[in-house]
Amino acid sequence: MSLSPSIVERINRARADLRMGVPVVLTGEGGGVLVVAAEVLDAARLAELRLLGGTPVLAVTAHRAATLKTPAYDGDVARLRIPADASVPWIRALADPADDLRAPMKGPLLAERAGPAALHRAAIGLVKSAELLPAALVLGLDRPLAVAADNSLTVIDMAAAGPMLLRATPVHPVVSARLPMAAAEAGRLHVFRPEDGGTEHYAIEIGQPARDRPVLARLHSACFTGDVMGSLKCDCGPQLRAALAQMGAGGAGVLLYLNQEGRGIGLANKMRAYSLQDQGFDTVEANHRLGFDDDERDFRLGSSLLRRMGFSAVRLLTNNPNKVAMLAANGVEVVERVPLRVGEGRHNAAYLATKAAKSGHLL
Ligand SMILES: Nc1nc2c(ncn2[C@@H]2O[C@H](COP(=O)(O)OP(=O)(O)OP(=O)(O)O)[C@@H](O)[C@H]2O)c(=O)[nH]1
Ligand SMILES: [Zn+2]
């Protein structure tokens, strides 16, 4: 076995680089490109990047391009040309909708149509998976490997990385220990670690549920604001507590606490979405203006964890039919959907109505 990092490990290293503002080199169809996450771009790096020659573009999603009133010629992606005199705040404003209403962008923005966009799409995928705004400054390189070597940059070969990014990351148990809780004294917390070095996820097992019968289960996505701070903007905190209480009362259950904050966009982006909601956009529109899909979660994770724990059938506490469908599609039978309607109030009524109207949540 080699001591050098595998492709999966290099992808994770690239995520860390991108979060710090360090460029990453992607190679594949169309040669090679240098990528910097727009959110953390600074003037010094932009100046260095310009010295390499060529015209950088900002790769954004079609959702963000629609907000910027620019056509997305590459389907789900648009490549916006960055003028030679563009400043860092100007580039950031293309990526970040915070000031869209106060200072509408001065157009017209020019989008590239020629050439492949596969590496641009990959760049967006990488910055997104690093929980940054989905926008990347991308510069085509004539000699990508030489630029990477000269500057000690991480290189990701997309031919090797692509399949890795598409598959569900395997998760492995790390430790478990007894955890008596107010809702259930017979609790146990299991920690699972993904193989790609990403965030750990937790399972709370209540009682000793039989593995050969459907278990009362909940897939709960992390919500720091609701679960911990008691936010009234969503129903997550009351749902978490009600699910544990129901499992405690019945003597058995399993609650997966999945670290997919903000439907998979991370807390910083969720707070950006909240700020847009204060400007009048609903939860789905806010995600789109930021450049995200409505829901960026990978629900395959829930089925992997359940199967890893030996469960193959569940009675699922949820109002979200996508969770039911994704479990079924990934080898966990949902014998019953158990509705979980709690915590509705003045501050979250519109949020819940939008989820029902636009995201298919059941009332
Ligand atoms: N992006 C975004 N995420 C939000 C917002 N409000 C809550 N969330 C996140 O939405 C997720 C809600 O998770 P869950 O309660 O497990 O899922 P759900 O899709 O509502 O389905 P059920 O509760 O099972 O019916 C959490 O990750 C929250 O952090 C919002 O306005 N924007
Ligand atoms: Zn919440």
TrEMBL record:
Keyword presence, Magnesium: no
Binding-site residues, GTP: R218, L219, H220, S221, A222, Q239, E261, G262, R263, T283, T318, K323
The enzyme's E.C. designation: 3.5.4.25
Pathway: Cofactor biosynthesis; riboflavin biosynthesis; 5-amino-6-(D-ribitylamino)uracil from GTP: step 1/4
An annotated Gene Ontology molecular function: zinc ion binding
Cofactors that this protein relies on: Zn(2+)
Catalytic activity reported: GTP + 4 H2O = 2,5-diamino-6-hydroxy-4-(5-phosphoribosylamino)-pyrimidine + formate + 2 phosphate + 3 H(+)
UniProt cross-references to SUPFAM superfamilies, sorted A to Z: RibA-like
InterPro entries: GTP_cyclohydro_II (IPR032677), RibA (IPR000926), RibA-like_sf (IPR036144)
Active site: D295 (proton acceptor), R297 (nucleophile)
GO biological process, one term: riboflavin biosynthetic process
Domain GTP cyclohydrolase II: 175-339
Family of the protein in this entry: Belongs to the GTP cyclohydrolase II family.
NCBIfam families: PRK00393.1, ribA
Protein name: GTP cyclohydrolase-2
Organism: Rhodobaculum claviforme
